[in-house]
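INFO worker-7 received task bundle
INFO bundle size: 2
INFO processing item 0
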Amino acid sequence: MKCLQINLFSKMDLAKTSPTKSGPVSNIGDNEEPYPSLSDYHDYEPNLEFDDSELQQTPNSSSISADFIHIEANGVMVMNNSPVAEFIDENYEEELADARDENFDSLIFTSSSYPEVGETTSTEQYSEISKYNIVDVKGDDAEGRKVIVLYACRLPPVREIDHGLFLNYLKYTLESYVKQDYSLIYFHYGLTSKNKPSLGWLVQAYKAFDRNYKKNLKALYLIHPTGFLKFVSQIFRPLISAKFGKKLNYIHSLKELNDVVPIEKLDIPYEILEHDKKLNGNLPVAPDATVKPEVIPTQQFGVTLQFIKEHYNVTIPPVVKQCIEYLEQPDALETEGIFRRSANVSKVRALKERANLGESLVFEDPHEPAVLLKKFLRELQEPLLTYELYDEIMQFQSWSKDEQLRNVSILVMEKLPEDNYKILKYIIGFLSRVMERSDLNKMNAQNLAVVFGPNLVWSELFSMSLAAIGPINMFTQFLLQHHNEIFMI
């Protein structure tokens, strides 16, 4: 194996003059990054110390073993000729060695040119990228955050894809979701010398995604990471802010991932399933569909609207009414980013349990009922807009402007079951009042459609996907913008 050397001398010098975590602390909110990345504009340098303590973990921990790496007296890091070969992705070692010859320090610290989001880039051009299904959107996770998925195995050979256009496409796709809390899942398996982007592109990509993209990313899950992927994260560490670094999660098995997001929602490619099976044995066994969890008479989550009506003798589910009544208070209604932020997981879980017992709910802040309302809609046995209407909703974009209002009105007024109609009218009426205060809460029709669309309708046969979310969101936005005509409010 070729010996790998990376000059860290300049980084170690910079560390001597960098502010440390024990230095002065400014008044920064929860959504601010206390140690911003080098891609932002600041008057000081971030902490650039190279901490090799994490390199002393086992290959199954957050970094590769220090037995494979040592720092020489001249400030050069050496990867020894050792079993590290089994952890290194194909041909990446040579590329890092080449990067050393081309001044890798300069690549990290001074590279500022990256593909801009091209204003002249047409959506037709993106079809050349979207056809590979490299990136997808999979609805919400258990905490009500949108889930974005990237599959490395679907990257085509380098000669067949314009990586600059791919970066633009990624930004274009994420723009609708970065204004709210979201999670990113990256399946690393399948990245080889034939389809991998260059290291320079990785630096450019990180810089291209500015703070607006990073601050609402609550978790980045790296699935089936190789030792080399972890090693690269150490090399890129000076480029990554401290807060962003805490969002990284290494997931070594699909069973582990299933604890975060149910894997049946992710449409995991067959080759990844087989790879996980080789690494970890059989896949996590899905719950037996014939064994239904015990349902109590007061239950509201995970049941049908008819079940709730029969046991509570009301059309509007109590949990929906309590959430909306709280959110309609002026202080709550005017909360910036309402429905975009996630809430404390344990508190939302406790509120769900109380609702299932038929108890009154007490909220501590507006984000709790906002998340609980979305969670209720998402966990209905059948979506509020029903499975039957899914195909028609998916045709919304094919309707002419003259047909849209008539077709949507017929769909909602005539084809939707009466109780579903009354609940939908109640929720849309509330959301219209949210839109009236969009100057303060920043939730207009488009933003609300992104949040609520996938929670109002989904397919009985297929999991949520980026291709489906587009028409669903457009339908929901139209519903919000024309609620007066449709519901005659």
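INFO item 0 finished
INFO processing item 1
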Amino acid sequence: MLKKEIRQSVLRQLKAQDKERKAKLDRALLEQLLASPNYQKAKTLATYLAFDFEYDTQTLIERAQKDGKVVLVPKTYPKGRMIFTEYKPNELEMSKFGLLEPKSDQAFAKDKIDLIHVPGLAFNSQGYRIGFGAGFYDRYLDDFQGSTMSTIYPCQEVDFRSDPHDIPVRKVFTYAQGF
């Protein structure tokens, strides 16, 4: 299957998820992420502001703030450029992708980010991902030295061949037991 077809198939499955089951999966995935040594050691966590069919990052953001971590979210620019800036809920605006993103252009230094929680639509067993197709994360992660992780639903586990420019996520949490 081509990446475009995988993207469309997984997107359909994500949008068709039962809300109650999704909420249970989100809680189980959050517990795994919070228990990970990389999360516990991180002083700075970069995550994303999710679509409603994606893993619910709002609970992660709130927990990370309670845990005293600096929370960052992405801001995108033309030509696939992206920065992370500090999360300030009252300083967000709607992006052209229909997601909230920071108004600020103040980039947080990449080498000061301990952990990036990476979004994606599909992931293979080696941690390679298929995103929405703009390449923002592959470009950003190309020279990133910190930890990366993702939280995904069973329908997002797909076997596909990665491309040479793809950057794998180092730890992918998935939760299927009992659901």
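INFO item 1 finished
INFO post-check item 1: The chain is about 30% helix and 20% strand.
INFO post-check item 1: The two ends are 27 Å apart (CA to CA).
INFO worker-7 idle
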